[in-house]
Amino acid sequence: MQLYMPTKVYSDKSCVKKHGKEMVSYGSKAMVVTGKHSSRMNGSLADVEEVLKNENVPYIVFDDVEENPSIETIMKAKAIGLAEKVDFVIGIGGGSPLDASKAIALMIANPDEKEEVFYQPKKLPNLPVICIPTTCGTGSEVTPYSILTIHKGRTKKSISHRIFPELALLDAEYLKSMPRTNLVNTVTDALGHLIESYLNVNSNEWNRIYVREGLRVFADFKERLQLDMLLEDDYEKMLRTSSWAGMAIAHTQTSLPHGLSYALTYEKNIPHGRAVGLFLAGYVNTYEDQKAVSEVMELLGFSDTEQFSNYMYDLLGSEQVEAELLEKTANDLMKDTGKLKNYPFNITKEELMQMYQK
Ligand code: NAP
Ligand code: ZN
């Protein structure tokens, strides 16, 4: 058994300011990578800028990262970062800016490489990356993955390069500005990571430590999440769960629900966590090792998969997806050998299509 988790994590109120000196110790000029609006609203960007100014570290802000970041956006940031001679990257936001910050750090460190390199198995250096999450779903602050939208292929895919952030700063205060649907979607993503990591060919007793704790904490807040009655403490619990889930998939990768979600996000603009969530009940019902599924259900505090399915339906509501799109999704996944091999059993295209929530 082995497990590799090299990211240093601080999880604390005001941790950006508390650990500001350490944050700026990774370079001499920073590129702050963020989305268009939210980091200005939730105070995270202001906290980072305050530290950079106080520590006299020059920086530029690239705030052009869209949801599900595209290769084009990364290449645009690369040109700016090279012209500005930045030597470390601070990503602030949801998974989109955090994933973008890793891909940008790779491209700036390799000025001669073109976009084709994202999907080539080449060992390349990257600038140091620091991640500050403001959603509670992707765990990108502790994973080595960066998922980019490939417009040419009308889908999304994790790049071939593994880039662990050097440092992750977790402050749940930043989550509090999230609208409910956004919060539900991102927590559902974390739940997907926990389940897909546990029920995964790469799973072992080490990643399952993160999963078990994550599922237990999820069990604690799940009813309040469903009833929209979250307590002050729950935000920190959700962020912690999300990071644990990230640590778990850093070891195992994700599985079929994630593989199935990408085309739905691309074609119908369904947010990532929601797109994953629509396949989760189907995944646990299809998974052949029902003993392992029962362990997951028990940790989550559900008596069986039917109760879990009802919970997911109540949380996410219904979403109409055309049969043709589900077929394309399943076809795409049948060709994605990297994702398919994480599923320990044989699976057919028809079974994949049936995983979608009715
Ligand atoms: P996101 O795409 O980063 O952000 C979704 C929306 O939430 C944006 O409109 C964003 O606004 C807003 N937002 C972010 N933080 C907010 C806050 N605190 N308050 C209010 N609004 C806020 O969402 P995400 O679900 O976190 O990330 C999804 C991406 O991560 C996908 O591309 C997915 O493939 C990827 N992902 C990566 C991993 C990994 O291991 N690396 C794992 C799973 C998923 P702004 O645009 O204005 O910031
Ligand atoms: Zn995910």
Write a structural description.
The chain is built from 17 helices and 8 strands. It is of the alpha/beta class and 358 residues long. The strands form 2 sheets. A 6-stranded parallel β-sheet has the order 1-8-5-4-2-3, sandwiched between helices. A two-stranded antiparallel ribbon has the order 6-7. Strand 4, helix 6 and strand 5 (129-133) form a beta-alpha-beta unit. Helix 8 (207-226) packs antiparallel against helix 9 (234-252). The longest helix is centred in the middle third of the chain and has 20 residues, at 207-226. The protein is globular and about 55 Å long. The mean pLDDT is 97. The structure holds NADP nicotinamide-adenine-dinucleotide phosphate and zinc ion. The site of zinc ion (ZN) has 7 residues, from helix 7 and helix 11.
Strand order of the largest sheet: 1-8-5-4-2-3
Strand content: 5-15%
Low-pLDDT stretches are none
Helix-strand pattern:
EHHEHHEHEHEEEEHHHHHHHHHHH
* Number of helices, where a helix is a run of at least 4 consecutive DSSP H or I residues: 17
Number of beta strands: 8
* General form: globular
Ligands bound to this protein structure: NADP nicotinamide-adenine-dinucleotide phosphate, zinc ion
Q: Evaluate the radius of gyration.
A: 19 Å
Q: How much is the average pLDDT?
A: 97
Question: What is the assembly state of the chains in this entry?
Answer: single chain
Secondary structural class = alpha/beta
**How would a crystallographer describe the biggest sheet?**
6 strands, parallel
Measured as a percent range, the helix fraction is 40-55%
Report how far the terminal alpha carbons are from each other: 38 Å
